[in-house]
Design goal:
Elements lengths: L1 H14 L8 H16 L8 H12 L3 E6 L4 E5 L6 H10 L3 E4 L4 E8 L2 E9 L4 H63 L6 H31 L8 E4 H11 L8 E6 L5 E4 L1 H18 L5 E9 L2 E8 L32 H10 L4 E7 L3 E9 L13
Parallel strand pairs: 7-9
Antiparallel strand pairs: 1-2, 1-5, 3-4, 4-5, 6-8, 9-10, 10-12, 11-12
Helix pairs in contact: 2-3, 2-5, 5-6, 6-9, 7-8, 8-9
Length: 394
């Protein structure tokens, strides 16, 4: 009987192979190690190289490749094919999740929520849920670095912008005094009776260019002040009709070759706002229409109530602004390619217009079409103390 039992035991051992041990507990332990090690990484340094080395060593893989879509960088350890970058980019774009047991290759898109931020490929004995878990750890590590890097870039940009604003303000103030002296001296020269025609022409050019520099300096000052956090609009009741008359009169030279039309929804239309800021905004719009408009065409200035807003518009005919520039044209120093060679400019004016509108709870936008021409819009709340409630743009 004992021999029979022994024979059964031996038969069971030799004829029925023992199932292999479940590798998941071992991989789970390694995953914990990976998580612990990633928390020790310097969050201010790019984690790509360290992550590929960690994943390879902790899980004992043949090779690891990771793609950071934000930085457009590839990190790899082990042997890979030549078109590795293209393969990783495709995994990211198509959000691939696949395992190939024959080659031991696993592909995973790195995602934060539904947003793909990169890709990972592994070659070795890790696949399925464990490969996806590794991809999640890598994605979280990348996202942590990107968040801190973006915060640092934002602070750096803020400090740079503050420095630039200070420099602009200082330069503009420094220019004002000599420009005033030059202007006064040239005006005095122009009154002299013994100037030859050539001399008179030179003096006229000095006066003209001094006036141009003076206007540019004034814009620089306005730009610097509008960037200041201390700039607080001073609200008052403003009747729009006489304000528009003042704006047109101040630009009479620039508008001399245009037909100017001013239309209001009603004669007594008024708004509660900062008058100086509104004048700066509309002056820029009208000046732009004259600078870039086709001579002999009409420049139309309109103001009308719309719900709790007053919408101002300045329409003219000139070079068409491409839709891709509709937002960027209001950025400081940006000039649309359609008009950059048409007239001299710095790209400052429209940024001033946007700032003056934003300072009063409003916004600006542009529409441009070959047949309809170009129209710049500004919408301001009827009462500065009551911001608009998201009124739709026409």
């Amino acid at each position: 009987m004992i021999g029979f039992r022994r024979m059964l035991s031996v038969g069971r051992h030799t004829d029925q192979p023992v199932p292999p041990a479940d590798p998941f507990p071992l991989h789970a332990e390694r995953l914990c190690t990976l998580i612990q090690e990633t928390t020790r990484l310097d969050p201010n340094r790019k984690p790509g190289h360290a992550l590929t080395a960690l994943v390879q060593s902790v899980f004992q893989l043949e090779s690891v490749a990771i793609f950071d879509d934000d930085l457009q960088e590839v990190y790899a350890t082990g042997d890979w094919f030549d078109d590795l970058r293209d393969e990783l980019q495709n995994v990211c774009i198509f959000q691939t999740l696949s395992d190939d047991p024959e080659t031991g290759l696993s592909r995973r898109a790195l995602r934060m929520g539904n947003l793909p931020i990169g890709a990972m490929m592994l070659r070795g004995e890790v696949r399925g849920e464990m490969a996806s878990a590794i991809a999640s750890v890598v994605a979280i590590t990348f996202d942590r670095y990107h968040a801190l890097a973006n915060e640092s870039r934002t602070e750096s940009a803020r400090q740079t912008e503050q420095l630039r604003t200070t420099v602009l303000d200082s330069l503009a103030h420094a220019y004002k005094t000599p420009l005033t002296v030059i202007g006064a001296a040239s005006e005095g020269l122009s009154t002299m009776d013994d100037l030859s025609p050539e001399q008179a022409g030179l003096v006229a050019q000095i006066i003209e260019q001094t006036s141009l520099l003076n206007r540019l300096t004034t814009r620089l000052l306005k730009t610097a002040r509008l960037q200041s956090s201390e700039m607080i609009p001073r609200a008052e009741k403003v009747t729009i009709a006489p304000l528009l008359e003042d704006v047109v009169a101040s630009l009479s030279d620039q508008l001399s070759s245009f037909r100017v039309r001013v239309t209001l929804s009603r004669d007594d239309l008024s708004i509660h706002c900062d008058r100086n800021l509104l004048v700066a905004l509309l002056t820029q719009f009208v000046d732009n229409a004259a600078k870039y408009g086709n001579s002999g065409t009409a420049v139309t200035i309109n103001a009308a109530e719309h719900a709790a807003e007053v919408i101002f518009s300045v329409h003219g005919y000139g070079p068409v602004i491409p839709p891709s520039d509709f937002e960027r044209i209001f950025d400081r120093y940006y000039r649309s390619s359609a008009a950059s060679n048409r007239a001299p400019g710095t790209g400052i004016g429209l940024s001033i217009a946007r700032r003056t509108a934003q300072a009063q709870g409003g916004h600006v936008w542009v529409a441009s079409d070959v047949e309809k021409g170009t129209t710049f819009y500004a919408s301001l709340p009827t009462n500065l103390n009551t911001p608009p409630q998201g009124t739709a743009r026409p």
